[in-house]
Amino acid sequence: MFTKLKPEPVIEQYELLPLLEKLQGLGIGWDRNMQSGRVYLEFPDGRIEFNNLLLLKAFVTGCIQMMEYPQHLNSKIELLEQHHQDYVRSRQELIPEIAQNCNSFIQEIHALRLLIYRGAEECRKYLLTLQVNRSQAS
């Protein structure tokens, strides 16, 4: 009839030291009262006291994730910017080829439309076709 209660997980203070040191590296200090077993987190605008090490671990882990998330986003943004620059550069490199290989204004417009709507590969195929047709005609 009675439900068994699961024992609360036990966390030793030595398990928290790497997390607390990482938090300290992010600008948040900490202090420990050996007599009471309490841990204090020192923030720029206040101090938080923890009696329960399980709650402390959850709080510190959340703080670390929250503070590292902007760094993670910044690295993703840098990666996306690099991909975008590579993409733009690859398309810009085709513009002189279009001007060189097209004999008429209509061919240039068609090549630019292919470049814009279907991509660089389709545009290159079209330019290659123009080169082949020109070499066969001469």
UniProtKB/TrEMBL annotation:
This is Uncharacterized protein.
